[in-house]
Design brief:
Blueprint (H helix, E strand, L loop, with lengths): L1 E6 L2 E6 L5 E2 L13 H10 L7 H5 L4 E7 L11 H11 L4 E7 L8 H8 L1 H6 L1 E4 L7 E6 L5 E5 H4 L3 E7 L2 E2 L3 E2 L13 H7 L2 H5 L12 H12 L2 E9 L5 E7 L3 H14 E2 L5 E7 L9 H13 L1 E10 L9 H9 L3 H9 L10 H13 L1 E5 L5 H6 L3 E3 L2 H12 L5 E4 L6 E2 L2
Parallel strand pairs: 3-19, 4-5, 4-9, 5-6, 9-12, 14-20, 15-16, 15-19, 16-17, 17-18
Antiparallel strand pairs: 1-2, 7-8, 10-11, 12-13
Helix pairs in contact: 11-14, 12-14, 13-14
């Protein structure tokens, strides 16, 4: 039979014999019933573990509303207007600052803000873009890990802190959303890098779909409490980025409820680990570079037997996705040597992208990776200790030659939206 694997704006196809295990999430089944705003409003009318937002706003002089940046497909137009309305319903005189949670990303541009929020809100509201290096910052003390929580001073000084966001599987934080509005959203670079340290990334609980016992999540949740994040509105979106569910209220309880909801659609049980795993990073724009493709490979590795052949389809229209990412993998003697080096790096000396090449090195230490990308990526892919293949057909033929005719095969059409139950 023929399978289709997302690749850029098209697909890679493969005629494959029967007997493979198909592993895919049910997110594509989620349909937006009512309009997104109605779903959000209903959630805000029945907050989880919290008073309504208008009640929290009563008596407060000022509030900070943390919003997502340009890198997140959060349908803010379905969320932010209702949060602003509720804040002012509870306190017409409250001073509201909207703070864009960029983490360590570049600043969101005015044009991107208009696209995200609409011209009316951008022209009317006071909006500040967080900068992890140059924004005024305040040290709120140590996190459970011992790292210092250093946040944007607007948050530290606010009478009320609330946030919006969306929930999706995350390959080392368990899930996005909720507490991530604070850490990494509005923290200093040092705090963010410390949260992504080698020891945390190495922890077996720091993986897709895991919150309990995850040291990265533990510091994130503690950061949300220390920064006095009081209320969130988080949504779940379908593949068209339409709101299908919303969760409002306490930043921990509401977020956990949203994660539990999403898990019903993302988690799958695998019959047996596979010797060959075929996957993608979900196509464009998620497969724009090799850096992002590590996410899909992480899911493939979760489905793989020891020494498996992993095939990732990612067009990489924008190339590699980071000089330090490429340099670490291309210049190392091998994945084991690179991992040994990374594991000696103290928390407070973590460098940008270290976590990404640590995770890829960990995969390469156990598995052979065939990387299907555009021709221009061949030299870089091979230099990074993977094997370039021009097509899925070619990659599969090589994997079959490597693993044999009796190899067990798993197909994961979209590696970034799936959680393999362990």
């Amino acid at each position: 039979m023929e399978i289709k694997i997302p690749y850029g704006k098209t697909f890679q196809t493969l005629s494959i014999e029967e007997g493979f295990e198909l592993l895919e999430s049910k997110i594509q089944e989620l349909e937006a019933g009512a309009d997104g705003g109605a779903i959000v409003r209903a959630a805000m009318d029945s907050p989880i573990g919290s008073p309504k937002l208008r009640e929290l706003a009563a008596g407060k002089k000022n509030a900070v509303l943390i919003i997502s940046d340009h890198t997140r497909p959060v349908p803010s137009k379905d969320i932010v207007p209702f949060m602003l309305e509720e804040l002012r319903a509870g306190n017409p005189d409250i001073e509201i600052t909207m703070l864009v949670a960029t983490g360590c990303h570049r600043g969101t541009t005015p044009e991107e803000l208009v696209h995200k929020l609409g011209e009316d809100i951008v022209s009317r509201e006071h909006i500040v873009v967080h900068d992890c290096d140059s924004s005024p910052l305040t040290d709120l003390g140590p996190l459970p890990s011992g790292a210092r929580l250093v946040v944007n001073s607007l948050v530290a000084q606010a009478d009320l802190v609330v946030s919006e966001g969306f929930i999706e599987p995350h390959f080392f934080a368990g899930y996005s959303g909720g507490r991530k509005s604070i850490l990494p959203g509005v923290c200093s670079r040092v705090t963010v890098l410390g949260n992504h340290c080698a020891a945390f990334i190495d922890d077996p609980k720091a993986r897709m779909g895991v919150i309990d016992g995850n040291p990265i999540n533990r510091d994130m949740e503690r950061a949300a409490r220390m920064a006095k994040l009081a209320y969130i509105v988080n949504v779940v979106v379908n593949e068209a980025h339409e709101v299908v569910a919303a969760f409002a209220g306490d930043p921990i309880e509401a977020h956990h409820a949203g994660c539990a909801y999403l898990a019903r659609y993302c988690e799958v049980e695998q019959k047996q680990k596979a010797d060959i795993v075929i996957t993608s990073n979900g196509g464009a724009p998620l497969d724009q570079n090799a850096y992002q493709a590590v996410k899909g490979l992480t899911t493939a590795a979760d489905a793989a037997a020891d020494g498996a052949a992993l095939i990732i389809c990612a067009e990489c229209a924008d190339g590699i996705g980071g000089d330090s990412f490429y340099k670490a993998l291309s210049e190392c003697a091998g994945p084991t040597e690179l991992l040994d080096e990374i594991r000696r790096v103290p928390m407070d000396e973590t460098v940008p992208d270290q976590w990404q090449y640590q995770i890829l090195a960990r995969i390469l230490e156990k598995h052979h990776v065939y990387f299907v990308a555009r021709k221009e990526m061949e030299e870089a892919v091979n230099a990074m200790k993977m094997e370039y293949a021009p097509s899925l057909e070619e990659a599969y033929a090589r994997a079959r030659a490597l693993k044999g005719a009796s190899a067990r095969v798993a197909v994961i059409p979209n590696g970034v939206s799936l959680i393999i139950k362990q």
